[in-house]
# Entry
Amino acid sequence: MPKLLLLGDEAISQGALDAGLSGIYAYPGTPSTEITEYVQNKKQAREDHVHCTWSANEKTAMESALGMSYAGKRSMVCMKHVGLNVAADPFMNSAITGVNGGMIVVAADDPSMHSSQNEQDSRFFGKFAMIPVFEPSCQQEAYDMAYSGFDLSEKHKIPVLLRITTRLAHSRSVVITKEKKKQNEAHLPSDPRQYILLPSFARKRYKILLNNQPAFSEASEQSPYNYYKDGRDKSLGIISSGIAINYLMENYHDMDVPFPVLKIGQYPVPVKMIRHLYDECSEILVLEEGYPLIEEMLRGFINNGIRIRGRLDGSVPRDGELNPNIVAIALGMPDPRGLPVPGIVVGRPPSLCSGCPHIDSFKALNEALGSLPKGHVFSDIGCYTLGAFEPYNSIDSCVDMGASITMAKGASDAGLLPSIAVIGDSTFTHSGITGLLDAVNDNSPITVIILDNDTTAMTGGQESPATGHIEEICRGIGVKKEHIHIIRPLKKHHEENLKIMKEEIAYKGVSVIIPRRECVVALDSRMRDKFKTKKTIKA
Ligand SMILES: Cc1ncc(C[n+]2csc(CCOP(=O)(O)OP(=O)(O)O)c2C)c(N)n1
Ligand code: SF4
# Structure
């Protein structure tokens, strides 16, 4: 079968396409974005009419994937870890409804928070929902798990969670592909009440989920992704999940680890295999990327004397990504970290691009607020969050997508005036609209600045669902026409923009200001594409 050089993200997409995927649903978020982009750019997907447009947020994506599965087809939904919080309601309930066509939920975790607000571990969500979870250790397994995940999902009529982490998502390796399967024919679920979660039906469905737990456990015991490799030195037994096995192997010449190793790639954890390791060895070291999920379970169910080491006893740091050095130290090897970084090397915080439209908006906002002490500007998540740094110092919060408007509303309810929200166009459609509706219903005295740069810039420039009609959405929600302003964030319009900001900040009701100018990076790439197309036509 053909070999491809793929990112972990791309291996998942290719595995799903080869397994007969009919639709992928997602909202962008690092490190998961490339999964959907690969499908969007793939000829095979276009020829097979695989649905692949971006969703408004992770919840709508999850529900659409569930709908496609309801109709009998194979679907996949992808998001970064915090996206699973947004999609938690349909996700948890999809474990109760079960699925018809196979459904895979991909959650890409970001330990060490390279580009995230937290480093939560999605395996807990899988355990919470009581569904099978896959965790690949390499790109080949990422491909294989996506490919075989649909079969597991259809066999047990349950969604399967595929959890990856940043390093796997964004590193490349050769992947051997498998035979391409046809897409499922559309067909309705055999149980017509399966998806009606009224209490009387939901109780039955929940019992089914509970009754299926032993089958999920048995699937883990038999899984090719969980295996036990014996070792000559039984003074230590190592449990390694997901990508951590690579960091372990890197510490031994020819990957010859002297200790027994249990590699885990499928959950629920294979308890029989763990018991075997536990009985064989005098001490256990757990290497897992993320929270100490396996370690906590181990301590819980067989804490009968053998020493268990890992993140909880400090053998491995409690937070952050693993790497070969951390693993070496946990194994008692000499500290391989070398010399400390010289003081002359300083971190460079990210900054807004020169010419970025957000710069002109922040300059006008800062001036409009004048000598007012800090603490009145609630921001959201996007490039504009960089307004927290020098030289702007314009924003005072960034919590989760949509929280700017709702936090400004809550603060204004508490009497903090002025209360200003700063949010991007994509984030506004992701989860700002409902917050604005709350503010309109209460006639909250807030000013909402919706920075419309015509794209989802922070995640690489995906299309933004409200392009060109944000003002109509605001009017539809009930913001008064005379308090909606579209301004042009450019130096030459500074004075008129400042006047509008000052007036609306003073207004004691809901006002919306939309600074509209295209992101310069998006503009640049649009121009390049245009130029390329022209050249091709000429040629
Ligand atoms: C729940 C959740 N989903 C996705 C992300 C990833 N993410 C961060 S900012 C952002 C959107 C930014 O777009 P926009 O608000 O238009 O601002 P811009 O970057 O274009 O200035 C996304 C998708 C996230 N942080 N949280
Ligand atoms: S990518 Fe676009 S929106 Fe982001 S900082 Fe650069 S110019 Fe501004």
Q: What stands out?
A: The mean pLDDT is 95. The CA atoms of residues 20 and 182 lie 5 Å apart. The first strand starts at residue 3 and ends at 7. The two ends are 36 Å apart (CA to CA).
